[in-house]
Amino acid sequence: MWKVVVLILICSPLASAEPSARLSAFVEGRYLEAVSLAEAEPSSDSLAFAARSLLAEAMSAETQVPSPTLAEDAERFARRALEADPQHIEGRLQLAIALSLRARPMSTQQARKSGYGTEAKKLAESVLDDDPDNFYAHGFLSVWHIEVVRRGGGLGAAVMGASVKKAKRHYQRAIAIDPEDASTHWQYARALAALNARKYREDIRTALEAAYAASCETQLESVMKARADFLKTALKEQTHREIETLAARML
Known about the structure:
Elements: H1 20-27, H2 31-39, H3 44-59, H4 68-84, H5 89-103, H6 108-114, H7 116-130, H8 135-160, H9 164-177, H10 182-196, H11 201-213, H12 219-237, H13 240-249
Helix pairs in contact: 1-2, 2-3, 3-4, 3-5, 4-5, 5-7, 7-8, 8-9, 8-10, 10-11, 10-12, 10-13, 11-12
């Protein structure tokens, strides 16, 4: 009946307590090196960091076709983090992203049977239960709602409790907390463009401009900014149907 959202929120907070070597590797886009460094210290924080790094590697691929192996490995790291600490916020966020990425290539029926969409939503909402102002959980859910509406239609959205109105509320909450995150603006714009490029044209344009204007602290944010610029150009030159097809393929 529907497929599950995929969202790049791997730019989650880079804590100052992170060891400098693996933090530097992540910021500079050396994600597999960051994973190796994190594995050397198998705490919940390190395991969640390894999951984030694997997802960043998958999502920053030039082909924008993420490796299923990377997503599976990220899921395993995130679940190990939660085995050690079931309430670990970063572990929950990265598991939600990993599950969404794993569901992306699935057929509608496979995605429904997997339960990944429901689990990802519950994980993100559980983070907000503990931390109502968690910027990254709000950003994740802003795209989750749009993607479920797009993939599932009216019936699927009703079953899953999804709506564009809820998506917009989560997005507005996220950017009120941090208006300078390129990834959040980009992903919201991309999701709306894939849903209905004509109806949401102004919202798409505004979010893309905000993404492109945002400052970048990591290599991954630079990738998001470049993708926002690419889609912004397409918005001027291509038909609405072409934009929807393009946005649906992008990450």
